[in-house]
Amino acid sequence: MATDMRKPAGSIVDAVEPQIRALLASRPDMPATVIAERIGWTRGLTVLKERVRVLRAQYLPVDPVSRTTYQPGELAQCDLWFPPADVPVGGGQVARPPVLVMVSGYSRWLMARMVPSRQAHDLIAGHWALLSGLGAVPRALVWDNEPAVGSWKAGRPVLSREFESFRGTLGIKVVQLRPRDPESKGLVERANGYLETSFMPGRVFTSPRDFNDQLTEWLTLANRRYHRRIECRPVDRLGADRASMVALPPVAPVLGWRHQVRLGRDHWVRLETCDYSVHPAAIGRLVDVVVDLDTVTVTCAGQPVARHERSWRAHQTITDPAHAQEAARLRRARLSMVRQRGAATEVEQRSLANYDRIFGVDIEEVA
């Protein structure tokens, strides 16, 4: 039996396709609405737009995807990540301190550490801790406009004084990205997402130190996992990456917050919102305060007069029991000395009979 084969019906756009092609040949990015106006289209726009979309690809220039590649030792991208979790910092307080994240471009080696604040002295100390663990320094560190690192002024990047000094000590470049340019540090942005989706779920932390301990353990595993983009594990490329980096400086950079002050009778020094006790023997003398990621150290004439674990809590007074005991002893000694001086200088009470003799008064005659 014969089969009736019907010819498919054409589209209402077929008749105007030559006109569409002519317009796209002269201006490939011409909007479909403008094309409709130029050809006098009075029908529905949906079918016309679909045909324009299909034809436009034939007239646009080829736009191949750009694939960024990195050379060994070339750079590391840096960023601050704020974990979505409350971390206990003691005394019933919780906080969400920043995590410094660094990713090497060539090997994709991932490094991270929670730091007490985003101030320059903490960021620099965090950099040094991570780079010391790496054992070498990438030839460039890429940062966005983090205020403690630097900013763009008058159309050019300007490093902060602290980071310029740190960069000079390391002998490398610090590349500051233009404002609102997150695509230029996509490696570290993806690393932040990776930390949030692979490290954070199901974890509970007891302190910042516990957070860093768990993070360090997880990073050991993460850097040994297959990376789809480089088609190997970061650890497989680390040797070549590190071999092309800059060696660590022979002398460590000056780290931490430093301040010199004359210690008053109130023998505490302030860091941010916390006060730390100093041995009262240093009262009235110049003391040097040095604060790193973990400790607060105070020296006087080169001799240590205080050492405290740095507090991540706000508005705390941290007192060494030995300092309190010595202060109490000195107060008692001073009070005793004052009492002794007072007793030695008491005015003698002269007898009234002495005055009688001076003025020739005979009490019995008067009586």
Topology:
Blueprint: H1 17-26, H2 32-38, H3 45-56, E1 76-81, E2 87-90, E3 93-95, E4 99-104, E5 110-114, H4 120-134, E6 140-143, E7 150-153, E8 156-159, H5 161-170, E9 173-176, H6 186-199, H7 208-222, H8 234-243, E10 257-262, E11 268-271, E12 274-277, E13 286-291, E14 295-300, E15 303-309, E16 317-318, H9 321-344, H10 352-359, H11 363-366
Parallel strand pairs: 1-6, 6-9, 12-16
Antiparallel strand pairs: 1-4, 2-3, 4-5, 7-8, 10-13, 11-12, 13-14, 14-15
Description:
- The protein is α+β, with helices and mostly antiparallel strands.
- It has 3 domains: 14-56; 76-243, Nucleotidyltransferase, domain 5; 257-322, no CATH class.
- The protein has 11 helices and 16 strands.
- It has helices spanning 17-26, 32-38, 45-56, 120-134, 161-170, 186-199, 208-222, 234-243, 321-344, 352-359, 363-366, and strands spanning 76-81, 87-90, 93-95, 99-104, 110-114, 140-143, 150-153, 156-159, 173-176, 257-262, 268-271, 274-277, 286-291, 295-300, 303-309, 317-318.
- It has a 5-stranded mixed β-sheet with strand order 5-4-1-6-9, sandwiched between helices.
- A hairpin with a 5-residue loop joins strand 4 and strand 5.
- Helix 1 (17-26) crosses helix 3 (45-56).
- The protein starts with 16 loop residues before the first helix and ends with a helix.
- The relative contact order is 0.10.
- The model has no long low-confidence stretch (mean pLDDT 88).
Outline of the structure:
With 367 residues, the protein is α+β, with helices and mostly antiparallel strands. It folds into three domains: 14-56; 76-243, Ribonuclease H-like superfamily/Ribonuclease H (Nucleotidyltransferase, domain 5), CATH 3.30.420; 257-322, no CATH class. The protein contains eleven helices and 16 strands.
